[in-house]
Design brief:
- The complex is a heterodimer of chains A (about 1050) and B (about 475).
- Chain A is α/β, with parallel strands linked by helices and about 1050 residues long.
- Chain A has a 7-stranded mixed beta sheet with strand order 5-4-16-15-14-6-7, sandwiched between helices.
- The relative contact order of chain A is 0.11.
- The longest helix of chain B has about 35 residues, at about 160-195.
- Classes of the chains: A alpha/beta (about 1050), B mainly alpha (about 475).
Chain lengths: ~1050, ~475
Amino acid sequence: MSEKKYWKSFGELNLSESYKKDAENEFREELPMESFDSKGLLDTKTPRRDFLKYLGFSTAAATLAASCEMPVRHVIPYLNKPENMVPGVADYYATTFVSGGDAISIVAKVRDGRPIKLEGNTMSAVTKGGTSARVQASILDLYDTARLRFPVQMVSGVPQEVTSFEAFDKLVSDSMMGQQTGNMVILTPTIISITSKQVITDFLAHYPGSRHIQYDADSFSGMLQANEGSYGKRFIPSYHFNYAKVIVSLGADFLGTWLSPIEFARQYAQGRKIDEKAPAMNRHYQFESFLSLTGANADERFAHKPSESAAVALALLAAVGGSVTAPALPEKLKAGISQAAKDLLANKGKALVVSGSNSIQVQTIVNAINEAIGANGTTISWDATNLTRQGIDADFTALIADMNQGKVSTLLLCDVNPAYDHPDSKNFKSGLAKVKTTVSFSGRLDETTELCKFVLPSPHFLERWGDAQSRTGYISMMQPVIAPLFTTRPFEDSLMSWSGNKTSYDDYFKQYWTGKLGGHEAYEKALQDGVIEPAAEAGTTASGGIADAPSGVKALYNAGSLAQAASAISSLKKGGAYELILYQQVSMGIGSQSNNPWLLELPDPITRATWDNYAMVSPNFIKDQYGIDLSDHNVSDKFESHPERQVIRIKANGIETSIPVVAVPGMPDGVFAIALGYGRQSADPKNTGNYIGRAAVDAGKNVFPLAINNGSTIEWIVPDVSFEKTGDEYKVAQVQIHGSYEGRTSVIKELTLNEFVKEPDDILDDRKKEVAKFGGDNYETEGTLYPYFDKPGIHWGMSIDLNSCVGCGACVVACHAENNVTIVGKNEVLRFHDMHWLRIDRYFTGNLADPDSIETIFQPMLCQHCDNAPCENVCPVSATNHSSEGLNQMAYNRCIGTRYCANNCPFKVRRFNWADYTGADSFPNNQDNQGVGKLNDAVLMMNDDLTRMVLNPDVVVRSRGVMEKCSFCVQRLQDGKLKAKKENRVLTDGDVSTACQQACPTEAIVFGNINNSKSAVVKSRQENEHRLYHVLEELHVLPNISYLAKVRNPESEAKEKV
Amino acid sequence: MSAFRYESQVRPPLVAGDKNYHQITDDIIRPIENRPSKLWWTGFLVSVLLLCFGIFSVTREVIYGTGQWNLNKTIGWAWDITNFVWWIGIGHAGTLISAILLLFRQQWRTGVNRAAEAMTIFAVMCAGQFPIWHMGRVWMFFFVLPYPNTRGALWPNFNSPLLWDVFAVSTYFTVSLLFWYCGLLPDLASIRDRAKLKWRKFFYGVASFGWSGSTKHWQRHEALSLVLAGLATPLVLSVHTIVSFDFATSVVPGWHTTIFPPYFVAGAVFSGFAMVQSLLIITRKVLKLEDYITIEHIDVMNKIIVLTGSIVGIAYLTELFIAWYSMSPYESFAFMQNRVNLLSPYGWAYYIMMGCNVLSPQIFWFRKLRRNITVTFFMSVIVNIGMWFERFVIIVTSIYREYLPSGWSTYYTPTIWEIGFYVGTFGLFFTCYFLFSKFFPVIALAEIKHILKKAGENYKAKMGPEESETNEEFAHEFEHAH
């Protein structure tokens, strides 16, 4: 074929000059490349046609350059490394938590010189490693910004620094000069330290006629005096709930706040752990006047008016065969009492009755009941008496009188705060003003201390030496785990130096124990163990089940005081239309840790409210007074979704207090229940933030003044109060507003023991039926369209026993401490912005109008670490993803905060940083926000350099705008894996534990590797197959947390069975 | 009857007022060449003020955190995503008019397509603000883009519907913008050619990309329009489908619903047409364009509104049926308690949605009401309120009380800064729209000229005699033509 060429113009044909020029200039525009092609860049021209080439090259080059590693920055190590200290490796020291008379053996975790976490000491026979919310939170008290930092002299109400201890000693001795030493009084809480007691004894001997008075705000005076009458001993015995098949509690909140809750919760849970092969558990009756944590766990609960509590005890005594006449009581209550009595008598020697009353008469009756049911020497033993409460109310009342009469010239106060926590604080304060020399050894300028003339701050328990004997023969040692942060001195040092003893308390302590234990080695061993205890108690079961009581020491019972007590109770006045009971919360107790944001933000287990106290009332009260019928779900939905609560003014003992009301199912009608421990306030309210603490400002109302001094003891029940509606509303910050689980059985599974015995397969069958259509036994692999991946190696899993969980909240605070979980303050809780990684959901069932029918269940809820996690696939940036070990993990740096994961989490456990709570934000200084989202001062307090010392350096502090949630304490898992790896062995259960698991006093939480058939968590799942379930299993999210269904053991069904 | 009769017997002319080409150019370009009216200035300034308030609200949120909004641990999205979906939905009418109606040769579209497309673009711009600024760490927004980075092989999560949103919305915006601008080219050139002021000549000269009106230009322009229409058509369906995936692929009862994609698209078209009505009724009045945007346009759009409104209504009823039929306690709670129960905390929102979206548009079955401008304007606002509530109902009433009753939320109301953000997007939208109406022809000048000869008095004068001939007469004349 010929190559013909067609031309378009004559110009082209002839290739004229003008054509050539035109052809060249066809595309005139030049890309602006001259700037860099004129020189350099390999001297090449970059014509338009090379544009793509250059673009390609430069993109590739940029990619390559950008993909290079970032420079590594090194931190500077110690110039002179302290001995025995490896930066980044934690040390653990055994010591003791002490608050008032309470003492809990703990182990303090110290990182680079800073204590950052407290764990229970597993060597303690009393707690066996359990802790409480307050113990967990006490680490934060060490770094409290309101701690007094130096000794002061109060000059007309203003603290003036005293520069040295010598100067202070001189000031005090000058002030004491010329006074009669006989008028000197040392006021302390119960002293359980052997050495401290010795120091006090020596001091008293040096000043003849001076006195030592022990004052417990949370007094057990009634029991002490009753026991003196019944047994001739002013002691509190040891209770053994683990030996009891039937437990009757008359208003004693023994799982939450009564006497020794950590110990009791553990014992109690032992009797509630169920062996599937032979299901049995204890039965717990609770007679009480408000819904307590313990009542919430009871199998049979009977609500009554506070004024009836003595009568209930008397009626129970009559019912168990005591020679007393039963008083008149409502029929239902009577029936309950006879049920309980029958059960108690049927289980003689395996039954226990405890009473929370502080009345001598009631406790005398309870002693008689325990005598009748054979508890003395079995479930109650007298060989190791409980020494944590020794204060006698009457002594202190007498002291107030003495002070007011000017009979006291010098008062030394140590860690007591009667100006706040005594009902008669007004008289105490007036008396205090009449004492010439008042010296306080208190860590802060609290209500009492600010009224004293001299204040020598005492160190935090983590900064000092000491010992604590909470039971006879059971001693727990204290050692400092950090050098004192401030100029503080233990009160023992002051007493010693003021009584002419020149040795320091530290030396004294060491000498005493070295001598006592017979040598330095033994002393060091004691410090290392943290406890000195007699050989292990026989018959203590490690795993669970109700054991037979060993033959304990029986106290000789003397019924002499019984008749008098019975007649005193019979002649008690009837209560009025409205009555009041004052109670303690697991978080605040009597308020000694009331500047602790972790505790203030710990939701009350029952009301789930934070940062405040309030009057708990029955739903009927709200209905009658305000026309809000909570049994109508439309009304209750509206009511509960707004935080405003009606405020009433309560009048008792001539004192008025305005307080919001919170309707709680299970509250008897006509009863107000208000928590103690709130409403801290300095004499000048402006000083509260500085003196008591910024977090305590405006937190609730102080109701101690409402309590009654019956002449011999302080009672927390007021049988006749009046109230009026104020018409005001007050916002109560609750973290959970809906109380019913709406019959959603894939959330909560519970059954009765009888049902469980009859139909053990019930739950298993239900689960099987639910997934039958989606693969049945192969639900995991066949319930989805997606491919299944093997899970080799470690796979973390958790099992939570709803039967053991009592809802105490220790795990919640432990999680705060371990994972730097921030607090958000009341304003933000009100906006539902709380950050708890672990929460304890609380649900009620039953008839709102009938308090006895209310049943409560607690469900610890945390990230379920779903293997098919709905949060993971919706994150646009893969900030949350799955580890090869089954963890659902968060890469905080990657998170951009779309919150899609939180929306898609069926368990609602993801927490978003709505504001800059931690000061870790990219925008500095943005916590000054006014208006919407204003942060409470407590949040800013937590950002103080001092408070931030509590942060765990192993855990990232999250900034504003990122999502966070439970990580299964991944830092601990890594640590455990490394430990095993370094020792060249397979990881075992003992290597890892999550913070919540470790804190739990009842061992409700079991955690471990589910791919290891020998691990405890696998065992827990295998042994409890019939109670096992996953929450919302039908969603096929495949949670790695399993729950064991709650089993209740009510009497009514037991009757059917017979 | 003539076989050549072109004018419709049943439809009135698309352009009223017996216009000629010059008049059309004059009518449409006049507002651009004249000084803006006082009304324009007032509207514009109000919009700018709203925009500034919006910027302030967002700035506060960026500095102090998402806590400036009343979202909480249970309700992770509320006004932010409601507004996002609402604005995105509004955009759909523009694309539907410009793309689908172009492909279907619906000639009436030429009267409204320019403004509708502009509305789409501005609505998508407004919509885009919400997913961006709702991020807790908005300065890290680029993490959602698949770009080479120093973090190793770290890609966004292609499983996440939010990522699909990023692609869907950005594609949608790009195509809509191109489409809109492509259509503008001949019109901008017209303005340029008429311009007497130097800056105007320059500005429109640059903006018209050297349009010369050559046949080649026109041919390419038509071809490009068709190609873009082809691209945009699936986008009309895909964008809201993907937006609905944000909900449909989740496990949240009330979100996890397979009916969402078609239902969202229908809802989007529904609300979009309502917005077009609102805008055009004002625009035609203010710019005196009644001859171009006629009552016929309004009528036909009202028909679409009643159609899509009824589709949405059927979707609502289907949801309720499935909630009952599925026997899922969570699903039925979400629908029966959180929504249908009027006395539940957000029951009122469901009934506003039902009333505005399903019941009220039914009045458009009546021709008289369809052609009543006041009623139409009122209804267009009602429909958009209803559609806003639809998204609010879907988002908030599903998540505020879902699986675990312990997580049920306190009552959510927006803060001033949430409202400010929303109001601010109105500011942005209307600022853009006012600028658009001032600087761009609000009616597709070139396109409306295409349809001119097919209707109107002018046409009748020339074609009338021929049309009145019978076929035989015409054939005879044709044969004997010289």
